[in-house]
Inverse folding.
């Protein structure tokens, strides 16, 4: 396993991060899977207070108890469940964020959160108040660092300019190269790490039938998937090729992979040991479909 410093933080994170949202088993099963991941070198675990009404944090907290000094725990805040449980509303307010951290700390059974992330964001938010909330939590020692989870270039720019974020979580894959033009250069310049999610594009790049994805037609998706297959081999299967494409992007610190089974864990882990993509293979993949760009929130 390779490790990278997350932006300008002191957090050394595994190249493969464990996306805990996919966990669906009983706590004991989740713990076994998480412990297997730790044994294989994964040290970065990402959850959110939104997932399963906070129960995802509870399960992750139980699993990581006794391993706290060996792992980096990331969670997210900003989506407020309605009292009737019918859905959630966006709330980036200072008071709300500060109140939420206490509940997350309790559920995760920890005294501090390594990376606290804003779970979204718009230009209409009270951004200075939101930043002030994270800065307050830093001063209180309840969080070590903070970042945002966003695909909006205009929101990312505001936080880069006005805050001390160390990371941005965003979607990135062969079928979603929008960050290459709008975000990666800015983040590299400012030493802010990228946590990449969605590397297999909901499976259409590797094992699901071609279907429209973002601005791509089903035919274009099929071409991208075929390019992945063409650049794969017995030593590096399609999923690992798709993941290598993401991991070899210089801006990416860690690829966050949704894991719910041992087989998925093992497949993700193999991506760090399989042959890297050559310059020629990377070029062939990039030529498979036209590169897409953000059309909104620029």
């Amino acid at each position: 396993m390779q490790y990278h410093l997350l932006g300008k933080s002191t957090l050394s994170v595994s190249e493969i991060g464990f996306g805990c949202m996919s966990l669906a088993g009983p706590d004991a099963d989740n713990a076994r899977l998480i412990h297997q991941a730790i044994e294989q070198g994964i040290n970065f675990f990402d959850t959110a207070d939104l997932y399963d009404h906070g129960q995802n944090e509870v399960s992750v907290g139980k699993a990581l108890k006794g391993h706290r000094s060996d792992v980096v725990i990331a969670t997210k805040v900003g989506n407020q469940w309605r009292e009737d449980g019918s859905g959630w509303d966006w709330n980036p307010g200072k008071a709300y964020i500060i109140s939420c951290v206490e509940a997350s700390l309790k559920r995760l059974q920890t005294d501090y959160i390594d990376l606290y992330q804003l779970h979204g964001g718009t230009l209409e938010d009270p951004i200075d108040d939101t930043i002030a909330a994270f800065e307050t939590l830093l001063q209180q020692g309840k969080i070590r660092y903070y970042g945002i989870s966003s695909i909006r270039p205009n929101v990312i720019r505001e936080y880069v300019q006005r805050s001390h974020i160390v990371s941005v979580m965003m979607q990135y894959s062969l079928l979603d190269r929008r960050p290459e033009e709008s975000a990666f250069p800015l983040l590299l310049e400012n030493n802010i790490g990228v946590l990449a999610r969605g590397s297999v594009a909901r499976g259409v790049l590797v094992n699901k039938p071609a279907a429209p994805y973002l601005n791509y037609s089903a035919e274009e998706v099929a071409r991208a998937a075929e390019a992945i297959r063409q650049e794969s081999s017995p030593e590096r299967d399609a999923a690992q090729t798709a993941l290598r494409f993401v991991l070899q992007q210089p801006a990416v610190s860690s690829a966050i992979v949704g894991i719910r089974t041992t087989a998925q864990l093992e497949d993700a882990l193999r991506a760090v040991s399989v042959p890297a993509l050559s310059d020629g293979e990377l070029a062939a993949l990039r030529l498979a479909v036209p590169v897409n760009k953000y059309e909104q929130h620029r």
User: Anything to note?
Assistant: The mean pLDDT is 94. The two ends are 36 Å apart (CA to CA). Residues 94-108 form the longest helix (15 residues). Residues 3-204+242-277 form a domain with the TIM Barrel fold (CATH 3.20.20.100).
